[in-house]
Write a structure and sequence with these properties.
By secondary structure, the protein is of the alpha/beta class. It has one domain (about 1-195, about 220-250): 3-Layer(aba) Sandwich (Rossmann fold). It has helices spanning about 20-30, 45-50, 70-80, 105-135, 160-180, 200-205, 205-215, 225-235, and strands spanning about 10-15, 35-40, 55-60, 85-90, 140-145, 185-190, 245-250. Bound molecules: NADP nicotinamide-adenine-dinucleotide phosphate (NAP).
Length: about 260
């Protein structure tokens, strides 16, 4: 199973303090990767758990609602761990309102965090990965966290749908430009996963019942359910997988 082994590789995971980001960080740590746990809130528990799994891990504080911290994240990771082999663009936010009332602020914060910062962090990491491939043939891995709303319209989440549809497009664009340069760019589209992001839906009795009835697996996903897909896309097992959006959704899209 060596192709899944991430020992000696460094993964930058954004939004690593909670939810899906923590689930992915711990899965990559278990597979052997060092973890640069990037977040607005300190990822103290994630780092402690990653270390308990035998990985080396460090918190990098950054607010990704602007591109200001992008180069610092790359520099601090390189300084601490020596390289960047894997980038997981997981940090994301959501605002809910009817389209007729949707504010410009709710548009901007979601697009800036979910799409603009994702692109510029990928650009900065991609430059490092391309250079590493040119010098010693290493393969870099970028994993974007998309959504069911990369494929569907959703409701009352205008900027979130626009951002996650954009994430799908950028995943394919970057794969097209970088596949021959030693960087694999793919995405994971989680279905309904029980996290802070979906707390309002889980708390709404009617919406919760409607969602559960439509999920073939018959349950909400847990952040740990996303870990296996992340290990696959971060590892040598996926070296010829490019521009793919892998749904981890309990069958939601198949319905
Ligand atoms: P979550 O628990 O709310 O986690 C979101 C993460 O993003 C948190 O770590 C959060 O940090 C971070 N974040 C938000 N704004 C940030 C900013 N300006 N700068 C830095 N970090 C920021 O929700 P989640 O469900 O795990 O979400 C993770 C990703 O999965 C998101 O991209 C989300 O869109 C996506 N997703 C989730 C689901 C689902 O069902 N849960 C489905 C599809 C896609 P703080 O804790 O500091 O706010």
């Amino acid at each position: 199973m060596d192709m899944f082994n991430l020992t000696g590789k460094t993964a930058v995971v954004t939004g690593a303090n909670t939810g899906i980001g923590r689930g992915i960080a711990l899965a990559l740590a278990e597979a052997g990767a060092n973890i640069a746990a990037v977040g607005r809130s300190p990822a103290t528990e994630t780092v402690e758990k990653a270390k308990a799994l035998g990985s080396d891990a460090e918190i990098i504080s950054a607010d990704l609602s602007s591109t200001e911290p992008v180069q610092r994240i790359i520099d601090e990771t390189k300084e601490r761990f020596g390289s960047i082999d894997i980038l997981v663009n997981n940090a994301g936010t959501i605002r809910r309102n009817d389209a007729v009332y949707f504010s410009e602020d709710d548009w901007d914060v979601v697009m800036d965090t979910n799409l603009k910062s994702l692109f510029f962090l990928s650009q900065a990491a991609g430059r490092e990965m391309i250079a590493a491939h040119e010098s010693d043939g290493r393969i870099g891995k970028i994993i974007n966290i998309a959504s069911m709303l990369t494929f569907q319209g959703g409701i009352r989440v205008s900027s979130y749908t626009a951002s996650k549809s954009g994430v799908g497009g950028l995943t394919k664009l970057l794969a097209n430009e970088w596949a021959a340069k030693g960087v694999c760019v793919n995405a994971i589209a989680p279905g309904y996963i029980a996290t802070n992001n979906t707390a309002a839906l889980q708390a709404d009795e009617d919406r919760n019942r409607q969602i559960m009835e439509r999920i073939p697996a018959g349950r909400w996903g847990d952040p740990s359910d996303v870990g296996g897909a992340a290990i696959f896309l971060a590892s040598d097992a996926s070296n010829y997988v490019q521009g793919h959006i892998l749904a981890v959704d309990g069958g939601w899209l198949a319905r």
